[in-house]
Predict the 3D structure of the following.
Amino acid sequence: MGHEIEKRFPANAKDYQLFEEVGEGVSATVYRALCIPLNEEVAIKVLDLERCNNDLDDIKREVQTMRIINHPNVVQAYCSFPAGQKLWIVMPYMSGGSCLHIMKYAHPEGFEEPVIATVLYEVLKALIYLHSEGHIHRDVKAGNILIDASGAVKLADFGVAASMFDTGDRQRARNTFVGTPCWMAPEVMQQLHGYDFKADIWSFGITALELSHGHAPFSKYPPMKVLLMTLQNAPPGLDYERDEKFSKSFKKMVATCLVKDPKKRPSSEKLLKHPFFKHAHSNDYLARAILDGLPPLADRFKTLKGREEEILLQSRTEEDKEQLSQSQYIRGISAWNFNLEELKSQASLIQEETPASEELEVNGTDYGVETFDTIPSEHQNASDEKTGIANAVASRKEELQDLQEFGGLLATTFPIHPLKALEGFFDVYEDDNKDARQNRPVAFNSDSESLIPMQQISHEVGSESKKSDAENLEGTTFSAKYLNVPERQKILSGSLLSDHALLPARITALPERDELHQKHHSERYCSGPLLCCQRDSPKQSAASVHDESSDSRVVQRKGRFKVTSSDTGNKEIALRRGRDNDQRLVREKGKIGVATSANLACGFAASATLDASTVLPTLQFILRQNVIQREQIVKLLKLVEQVSGHHGEPSDLGGGEFSQPSLGVIKERELQSYILQLQQQVDHLAEELQIIKSKNAKLERKLHSFLKEREIGEQESLEEEGVSSGASHKQTEPIL
Ligand SMILES: Nc1ncnc2c1ncn2[C@@H]1O[C@H](COP(=O)(O)OP(=O)(O)OP(=O)(O)O)[C@@H](O)[C@H]1O
């Protein structure tokens, strides 16, 4: 089927006519469009690769997953191709839009139970399919549940999906922090033991609550607070009194999904057997119940955006951060940004006012109640105070130094020209920008590697950028506020694709809106990768709109971490959501580059040329890198914990000062996580070995039966020959 689709849908931008914008995510804008040769309405997701903060791995994975999946409840990609600096993904047009948009537009208090049962039933079928195929969706939420005109429900957005069959580095990437905080399972947040498809079951439970109330639990809180609440509160659920309009079986179904221990959550298959889903209705019912009377999707989308902008304007004057978060939620972008100062205040908010309203969301019956106020006794040991402070200072210094060293270690590369890096991956690679490329200082030869070391690039590019790259490589520093950096730097939880990046492609001209976005760009809340970036002044940000080279400020990227530099000489490091924080060294034609693991998975030729002597150092390099990355992540997480005032280790310093776990504890944790990592690697190798062994056994059996068959065949033909020669012999005998 996939092949037929690819054949049917042309992979060329000129065969499509873009109409209105119908959706916007962190990384993409979605348009209604017409496939001209087929006269078929489609949706086109347009990603700006040059400006996209997403790893190319993520994009490739998204496209790859969308292409191979084939299920009525999952949005499949018809085809994908680059168009200019953008990547277009052509897919079925779901004219009802997302459940989130329908809800925000017409059902702000949530849907009725039969509607919820119907939607969730279909989503669960999608999850059963995905899980059976080895995929974890990792971003199940109302915003990713799409409905078409006939009421058919499909799960969309594979931007952060992972494969259970990933091995090695990719598999370890499942220890990463991916998803959207409100819907994110605790084990995904903790990153301790990795996670599996049960993470989707948690998100499914949260989505059930979202559809019931019109918003996800904790959605009005900033991300850091959401993380802490999810980890420390009892799981949210339907309240037996407050949610009395909902049936007991619904409440129970939600409660089975929202169990903190993933092992105790049911599989998607098992969940489908829950009595609640007996209340599911047909697609027709759904269309009648929630789509009848709604204006066209593009109009609804415009209205919702308008509302968001109003809130955005208000929040600018009132500094109402929660409203900002809510405004993004309304539009369907679970996108937030926050700075470390804010984290501190958020953390204090949590301590000061654990909200009664959230307690109501707790399924008080089944779960032990853990609260933020509960301080383990070891935290209260006053004698640790002095040591704690000394350790805090020493450790902070050490961390700062380590982080700086880490910055130096980031002399790894990122595809400077994403389209080129993706060449051969999409259905068609249009090198339609050759001229521009020739004039541009990029580090690609026509047939060369897509990935070249940054140092090398800095030699090859023009002198301007040579200088700045060299500077950046030399003097990379961290710039988080509490590490003595300017306040204007912010952390974004999100892969932010700035709106203005897509302005030229926009069909719907909304000058006021665009102006607004330029004006407030720096304050938009974005979801996706955690990203610490420069908070540009409106002037700077406007300049960056037109400055094609602005991306060149990114001088180093390494998984979650991105080191950038600005013209003013400020250096910054970006902390990005590590959808895939692994990188691999690729040797090809004598050059060394660092490629993300999916590059290899996608069959880049480089890996094929490796020989045994290059593999070993490469693997050692990867291992070292991973260990370093992991350590840095753990450190940064700890720093965030300190800022928030919450950590699980001794020394509550009181007096509003940061608490600081002792150096020994930190080292111990690091070692533990390292051991864990090694264990996982060993497990994996064992798994892989097992798979190879069973493949071998299969092949041996096949070979054996083949040889046997051949032997039998030979024997038979010999016998036949013997018989016939015997017969002829017999015949000739009398003659002789
Ligand atoms: N096939 C489609 N038909 C109609 N609308 C769509 C379609 N695909 C996506 N949309 C709309 O566009 C929005 C953004 O799309 P999508 O979620 O794929 O982008 P994204 O950048 O990956 O989002 P996210 O912020 O969740 O990472 C969706 O929430 C939905 O409202």
